[in-house]
Amino acid sequence: MIVQRRAVTAVLAAATLLLTAGCSSDDGETPGAEDNATPSRTAAQSPPSRTAEETPPAKGSVKVVRTVATGLKSPWDLAPLPDGDLLVSSRDEGTITRVDDRTGRKTELGEVPGVSPAGEGGLLGIALSPDYASDHMIYAYFTSASDNRIVRMLHDAKKPSGEQLGAPDTIFKGIPKGVIHNGGRIAFGPDKMLYAGTGESGDTGLSQDRDSLGGKILRLTPEGEPAPGNPFPDSPVYTYGHRNVQGLAWDSEQRLFASEFGQNTWDELNAIKPGDNYGWPEAEGRSGGTEFHDPLAQWGTDEASPSGIAHAEGSVWMAGLRGQRLWRIPLKGTEAAAEPQAFLEGEYGRLRTVVAAGGDKLWLMTSNTDGRGDAKEGDDRILELEVK
């Protein structure tokens, strides 16, 4: 098991970040940051020719079908169960809750031991084992007192509410923690390997250090070992040069995409290529050179502060926190096929997680009770969307 080789103190990391001119949190909400001029969004130039079969239309649509559940507390991630119900992690409560897809009824599975919520840390990403139907394992990424780590727990739905989670088995630890930039998104890929997006915890030097676990996308076996075929020998590092990876999703051709918080200028959607360097802190957004892998689309930080992403109907759908909108990015291969299109702007506040539910259906979860949003009656909520 690989552990973090640099000891990074969360308080020092936060202080360093706040003393850096104009430096922003994951939502771009450092005092004064909203007064900074931010460029408008841009997308990669479209290829010269396409067919309707290859490329989704430049313009799409979104319909909110219904509100699935309300009254969620600091929800962070969403994982659909095989029967259609939804599991929700609570960042600050440290709990996992089951939501009935039909009635919205909430049943707490239990509290994850060892979660130490503070700032942007706490119980973050959750994912079901690829063999959940037989092993009933839930994976979780969380901030502990010393680091960020990934555990797996047996889910026994036959036990009473609050007692359904088994003792956590730590499969990976040593990811640097901070008051900010803890990453946290985990997902099993089509190859049944576990991918994790990490942040640099406010220490920008970690992103370019391939011996560090901060500012990376990691690729692991379900047991927490470096996955076979990783680009760097005996390392869990899949890509590096990231600031704070928050969304992971694959398209129908098994290509991986990731969303990432910028600082004050550009938020990013990236097409992920094993072993590539995505530039931070030397580059934010497109550099135009060959040293770093440029994003396929980028936004001014007031328009996005992206979190979760999903792929459906030929497009990546990206939830925006500070931007308070859902972005659609139509794709041709690993390029943007048209300008990104925004939906639901300001209608539901901050948007944290979006999950594909098959066909033209998405689950979308808000994030207004995390201390940064303007919580309304009923927040936070899960919405069912129909997209085209």
TrEMBL record:
Residues 72-372 form the Glucose/Sorbosone dehydrogenase domain. It comes from the Bacteria. The keyword Signal applies. Residues 37-49 have a biased composition (Polar residues). Coiled coil: none annotated. Residues 371-388 have a biased composition (Basic and acidic residues). Keywords: Signal. Pfam families: GSDH (PF07995). Residues 1-21 form the signal peptide. This is PQQ-dependent sugar dehydrogenase.
